[in-house]
Each structure stands twice: as C-alpha cells, then as structure tokens.
Amino acid sequence: MDAGVSMPSETVKATEQGEPSRKGAEEGERALGELAERLELSWAGNLGRWYWDVRSGEVDANPRKLRALGWEPGERAWKVYDFTELIHPEDHERTMRAMRDHLAGLAPAYEAEYRIRRRDGAWKWFYDRGYVAERDAHGAPLMVAGIVFDVTERKENELALERLVAEKDRFMSIIAHDLRNPFTVVVSGAELLERYVDELEPERVKELAGQVASQARRTAGLLEDILSWARSQTGGLAPAPTDFLVVELLDEIVSLYARPAGERRIGLEVECPSELRARADRSMVATVLRNLCSNAVRHIAAGGSVRLSARATDTGVEVEVSDTGPGMDAETLRSVLETGAARRRSATAGSGLGLALAREFASRAGGGLVIESSPEAGSRISVTLAAAPVD
Predict the structure, then answer these.
(1) pTM (two decimals)
(2) Are 83 and 96 in contact (CB under 8 A)?
(3) Coil, helix or strand for 28?
(4) Are 250 and 272 in contact, with CB atoms under 8 Å apart?
(5) Alpha-carbon dihedral of residues 137, 142, 143, 144, nearest 10 degrees?
(6) What is the CATH topology of the domain spanning 22-150?
(7) 382, 319 in Cβ contact below 8 A?
(8) Where does the pLDDT of residue 5 fall: very low under 50, low under 70, confident under 90, or very high at 90 and above?
(9) pLDDT in tens, 265-288
(10) CATH 3.30.450.20 in the chain, residues?
(11) 3 state DSSP class of 311
C-alpha cells in the first residue's frame, strides 16, 4: 500500500515450504507492468512501485515517495504501519478496508486515494493501487506489490472545481430570488399601463411609469453586478487603474439613487474635498459603491439617511458609505460576507451578493474593505484606495 524501490525481477522469495519462488516474482513484475498500463494515468506524479513483505511488515520505499513525504532515503527503516499511521483520520478506515478486502480475496486489487501527512505536517494526496503478488501454499499473502502516484495537484483542482460548482449553485439561487421580485413589479406595472392607459388619470400613469422605471433601473444595476461578478470569477475582469476625481464618482453614484431615495424620504449626501484624487480601477470602485449605496437605500427605513464621504489619509484615500439602518451583529456580518448567504435584514445585506462582491472588487481594484456595524446603530463601510500621484 506504500511506494517502494523497484524490486529486481530476479529477487527470490521463499514459500513456507522453503522452495524458491523466482517465477512468482517474475510474474509479479509482469503483472505490475500490465497494471501500470491499465491505469491509463499520466506518469506525472509517479512515485514508483512498492513492495510489502507481509510477514516482516517491511516496505521497500522508493526514494521519490520518501522525499515527497519530507524524508531522505536511509534516514530510517520503514514498516507498513509507519505509512498507515500517516494516513488522514478521515481516509484511514476506508483505505485499510480496501487493503483488507483485497488480502481476503474479496476484491481483485487494492485501490485507494487518500491524504497522507508529510514530515512537516502538511497533507498530500496519494493514489495507490496494488495486488498480492505472492501467496504461500495455503493462499496466505506473502508479498503485496503496487504503484503510487502523488495526485495532490489533481485533487486540489477537483476540490476547487467542486467549490466553484457549489458557488455557482448558490449564485444561481441568488439570481432567481433577487430578480423575481423586481421583474414582477416591472411586468405587472407595464401590463397595467398597457391595459388601462386610456382610462387612468395622467398622474396615475406617471406614478406607474415611475415605479416601472425605478424597478427597471434597480434590476439593471443588479444585472450589472452579476455580470461583473461572473467576469471576475472567470478571470475576465483584470483591473485597469486610472487617476480620477473622487467627488465626481460619488456624485454619479448618488444621482443613480436620488429618485428611489426621494420616494422614501431618504436623505442622500456627499462629503468630499473637490480636489481629492485616487488611483484605482474606477469601474470596479463604482461597482463597489453602487452596491453599497443601493443596498442602503433599499433596506433602511423611510426617513433615514445615507452618506457617501471621502478623505485623504496617511496611506491613501478612504471612501465611506454610512447609513442609519438597523445594522448587523457579528454573526449576521459573517453570514452576509459569504456569497451564498441568505437575504438579511441589515442595511448593507442586500441580495447576499452585495458585501461579498464589494469586498472582492475592493481588493481587485487595489484597496480593501472595512466594515463597522452593530444592531440598531447603522453601518459604516469604508473602502481604502491608493492616492493619485502628485504631479
């Protein structure tokens, strides 16, 4: 079950009757070669063949395997249990059962994929396969031979893919949840206008049209966030830093939400020195601020306020979005920072994508995200950016 130095085909093993079994060893070598061909695996990561003397417990360990585990050849003698004790607890019983089943003749070969602990405490993934190459006259195994591969890179890629698939599933759930409501409002409002436009008072037509337009703008903003997030996950969104006036960006963000904020009597204000300049990916920063401002406006109570401010610091530029919303406790904050978190009641929770997206984009844009929030006390979220070079 462990990697080992290739054993020459002329090696002689003795049966219990004392008769040499050169033929058995040679047949074992041929069978092992056929086994390697049947594996249909790349030889990248091949750590060599191994041989386990079942009676003595000794394992001929290939130097490549020893080095993969952080040991140099000759540092110590190796018994089979020296290796099995290194197998990850979650993989140990499954791996041992695979070997027991083969030794008992219940499986044609031993095959297992498991984590094994390096000398420094790190874990590697091994793919191991072997068979009983020699038995005594009573059928008891005398020698087990096999081949082992270091498949750490492949397993890490598989696990990363699994995480990506899970993230995609959570993301699709967010999309289905968050697009359904605004689209319902847009469609129902448009249908009312289409059906009753000749019967409605002009003020009512204007009101319905405003609601449809407002929801359409919010939905378009969410779609933009979704597309930006998708591009970032596929590596298609590389940051492009530029110098820009911060106040101009803040004014643009506020103008996007002036109408929905006004409808709910929410105050929107900007506080920023007119000459303050930052250097970052302006589009990414805009996505972050749009996300934070949109969520604040949507989720704080009528009559509240949202402030976008910026100031120069010793290390760069700090842009802050603060609100008078319900705030978040530590557990809620942790949850909404996960992409797939459920919708929360806080001002900045948004769709569940908001803070996760904002944090990721702030990092990609060349800055960071700091969140201060407590229940019933509102939230303050600051984005740190590099200052534009002084001419």
Answers:
(1) 0.48
(2) no
(3) helix
(4) yes
(5) 100
(6) Beta-Lactamase (3.30.450)
(7) yes
(8) very low
(9) 999 999 999 999 999 888 788 878
(10) 22-150
(11) strand
Could you tell me where in the chain the CATH 1.10.287.130 domains are found? 152-235
Rounded CA separation 47/66 (Å): 9
Supply the DSSP symbol for 345: S
- Fold assignment, 152-235: Helix Hairpins (1.10.287)
| DSSP helix/strand/coil, 239 | coil
Q: Residue 388 and residue 245: Cα distance in Å, rounded?
A: 9
Q: How many other CB atoms sit within 10 Å of the CB of residue 191?
A: 11
pLDDT tier, 127 (very low <50, low <70, confident <90, very high otherwise): very high
Residues paired with residue 126 on neighbouring β-strands, in sequence order:
114, 150
Structurally, at CATH architecture level, domain 238-391 sits in 2-Layer Sandwich (3.30)
Our CA angle for 362, 156, 171, nearest 5°, is 45
Q: Which amino acid is at 39?
A: L
**Rounded Cα–Cα distance for residues 2 and 49 (Å):** 8
